[in-house]
């Protein structure tokens, strides 16, 4: 009778030399070829946009930053793999590549959506617009390539691997990314000032972001054994605390932003900032709605994080 393994084993500390991943022949392996595709697609994307200076405004700047950043870090990873320099790399090689690949997939996904919808569609037909459309296409290719790497290298049931390759580890990346988008939408203090309940929500977003970020950094630096409490206990407590905090935010944010009893705006038409449309800006009501939705998304992520964390088995190697 077949046995289904439902628990994933991860390493928390390393007392011997880590296994070298990759070699000078890394480019001939499927993962190496995939990283070459990532390198080429991001390079072509920012080159097409740079050749016609089609990145004016915050949305264009974000897309250009994403493609340049992903190209640079992917190049570093390839150099490390080719030179067999994993043991000399300052971060944990068990955790860094998949952590970066997950962030890169999310970055490229955001650029592939934001750049064409808020920038390209408002451009006049011509060479510049054609270059921008082609760059968006290569951004989508890069997103798929990074997502494929995550799917290939994530932890399998029963496999001994780094924490960031597990579902909770990848969820930490997703949670911090969503929090960053929330921060972008609430960059105008007007949206939450003068209301303690909304200021509490902003504090929730910040606290949970910092805690998740600290967890990622502890794993990237192989510093989990420096915690005053066992790492599994830390993870479970963090996930539970984040769920409770976000549960308050998912109630308070929509209540104080959309309920007229609390001077909210139940309909978009009531918000005067939405009467004037600008291709590179988002009106206040849309920002409020986006934050409410993203709060719910992150709450679901933290609940999943809490559930999956209970299925991990920690070992020392």
Characterise this structure.
It is a multi-pass membrane protein. It is found in: Membrane. The protein has 317 residues and is mainly alpha-helical. Helices cover 62% and strands 4% of the residues. It contains eight helices and three strands, in the order E-H-H-H-H-E-H-H-H-H-E. It has helices at residues 30-51, 57-83, 96-118, 127-153, 167-185, 196-220, 231-258, 284-309, and strands at residues 8-13, 160-162, 312-316. Helix 5 (167-185) crosses helix 6, helix 5 (167-185) runs antiparallel to helix 8 (284-309) and helix 6 (196-220) packs antiparallel against helix 7. It starts with 7 loop residues before the first strand and ends with a strand. 38% of the residues are buried.
Shape: flat
Got a strand count? Answer: 3
How much of the sequence is in beta strands? Answer: under 5%
Order of H and E elements: EHHHHEHHHHE
Describe the biggest sheet?
3 strands, parallel
Structural class call reads: mainly alpha
Residues in helices, as a percent range = 55-70%
Distance between the termini: 31 Å
Outline of the structure:
The protein is mainly α. It has helices spanning 30-51, 57-83, 96-118, 127-153, 167-185, 196-220, 231-258, 284-309; strands at 8-13, 160-162, 312-316.
Helix and strand arrangement:
Elements: E1 8-13, H1 30-51, H2 57-83, H3 96-118, H4 127-153, E2 160-162, H5 167-185, H6 196-220, H7 231-258, H8 284-309, E3 312-316
Parallel strand pairs: 1-2, 1-3
Family: Belongs to the MAL family.
Domain MARVEL: 26-158, 163-314
GO biological process, one term: negative regulation of heterotypic cell-cell adhesion
